[in-house]
Amino acid sequence: MIFIDDLKLNVQEAKKKHYTAVFNYLKRSHLKIDKDVNRFIKNNVESLIIGKPDELIQLNENFYNSLRNYNYDEYLSYLNLPTKGKTAAQNKLKRKYDRLHKRLEKIINYTNWFTKSPKHYDYLLAEGLNIISCTYCNRIYTNTMKSEKGQKVMRPQFDHWFPKSKFPLLALSFYNLIPSCSVCNSSAKSDTIFYLDKHLHPYVDNDVLKRFSFSYDYYKSSNKYTIKISHKYGDLKAYRTFSDMNLKVMFNAHISELQDLIMTKKTYSNSYLKNMIKAYPDANLSYEEVYRLAFGTEFKEEDFFKRPFSKFKSDILKQLKLI
């Protein structure tokens, strides 16, 4: 996982533009309607759009407690309903909250407004954040591109850290829209409920890169490598996050990346990068530039988001004593 620094100017500007776009949409379409859900959104619109993650979870609780015949404790029971074998009472509860959530989805309208607007508000947010590789796994490029005629071509998917299927009120909240690859968004994390006191959040935990590390094991009998993800002893938030996101499984699909680094270690000395600098004295290459050319990744932690596998390769290279 990569930390997204919301103090950066581009992120601040992206948040400002996102707030304006969402506020104008809600004001134009829904805030004038005098109904319970619409009134709550109108009275809390700023917190809803740009509230920090802890504010969002409190806002979500307040929402259910504000509605007649609903309450937050009942909503929590709804979240924990079994997939199969529900009782008659549980089915009744499911229908009750499903109906409410359908109302919410029409108002918030993430799918039919945000992602399908002719003004490309989804692309505007992606361009502003400029997260070039997946925030969660840092394995895949997530560039934002349009054609010369302004047509949509590619952008990161936006994972809802609080899943929009279970937290529909927060579907357009800035801090709930995490730029990610399709694998992390759809199958790795999917609708798993994450909690701020149990999981790392890319806008909250600025020390996330220091809370885990990659390493590997080699089994000589089977000639097999295994990639491992470790965390500091007792750091259950880190453990739950990477376990629930299946990151170990995903990275073990990239054994070839590991093998390339091991081959580099076997072929060259520990002074591999320094020797490259000496070999091209007229190029005036810095250590960082040679590192990027040699391994195709970024050297500085604050730049890891710019190229896939930057964190992974950095940790493995340290284990191999190549850097």
Structure, described:
There is one protein chain. The protein is mostly helical and 323 residues long. The chain has 15 helices and six strands. It has a two-stranded antiparallel sheet. The radius of gyration is 23 Å and the shape is globular. The protein starts with 8 loop residues before the first helix and ends with a helix.
Average the pLDDT over all residues and give the rounded result.
Answer: 91
Q: Roughly how much helix do the residues carry, as a percent range?
A: 40-55%
Radius of gyration: 23 Å
Strand order of the largest sheet: 1-2
pLDDT < 50 runs, ≥5 residues = none
Query: How far is the first residue's CA from the last residue's CA?
Result: 22 Å
Classify the secondary structure makeup into a structural class.
mainly alpha
- The percent range for strand residues is 5-15%
What is the H/E order? HHHHHHHHEEEEHEEHHHHHH
Q: Give the total of beta strands.
A: 6
> Largest sheet, described in full?
2 strands, antiparallel
As an assembly, this protein is single chain
- Output the number of helix runs: 15
Shape: globular
Explain briefly what this protein structure is.
This protein is mainly α and 323 residues long. Helices cover 47% and strands 9% of the residues. The longest helix has 21 residues, at 9-29.
